[in-house]
């Protein structure tokens, strides 16, 4: 008869106990990394931190940096436009800036807030005042997210390079957001944000932001013959719409835990599920829009 291993049993029981405690402990997940805010007593949801301080000087400097990034990407797009004799690369690079419009929708669902001050508000949707800073941020950030994949499409890159390109933009997202979030007065995340892997950036966001703009770039490539000439201006509507579509596809698990009051483990699972859905969206885009097997790494974009 095989002897019962008590040490192995104790280890398994201990692991289960830890998981149970994590799942039952209703405490804020990474509370110190998100902006403190009150909870609405009627709905049980975190109240947006409308009184978060707005850094006028910091937002000016950050806007200049993003403007420079966007202009660099735009110069690359102009070079490709001349080489391919079509203006579509330019429209793709510029279209990322228009994601500043649906930014308000994703902020509400995802627990993000851009501070503001009187005299600096450019537009207001759904009770969310927005300054020039998020517009410039999307001009630079969106240009990178939109044009990295499109530049790969132009060069008939292998599927493996598409995944590498997505990984590079993820790294860019982490770097940029970790820097911005540690500069007071630019923008904040609030609520119970999952998957904060470093200091303040909830990593699940990159699995909605990047696939969303990737979707727009893939559509631009798929319908490049229909977007010739001034019809390329349609990218200014297509990119924010595609961006919001992928966000809607993936965000629900993360949004539920962010705007609720769940345990640490449940909160992380919500973020993980959204991340998986974002990766699934990327694979579906490659399969359906680009008509390529997302796992056929040596196959090239057509």
Walkthrough of the structure:
This protein has about 300 residues and is mainly alpha-helical. Helices cover about 60% and strands about 5% of the residues. It has helices at about 5-25, 55-85, 90-95, 105-110, 130-155, 160-180, 205-220, 235-250, 250-260, 265-290, and strands spanning about 110-115, 125, 130, 190. The longest helix has 29 residues, at about 55-85. The model is unreliable at about 10-30 (pLDDT under 50).
The first-to-last residue Cα distance is: 63 Å
Instruction: Tell how many strands the DSSP assignment holds.
Output: 4
* Proportion in β-strands: under 5%
Query: Helix and strand string, N-terminal first?
Result: HHHHEEEHHEHHHH
Mean pLDDT score: 89
Strand order of the largest sheet: 1-4
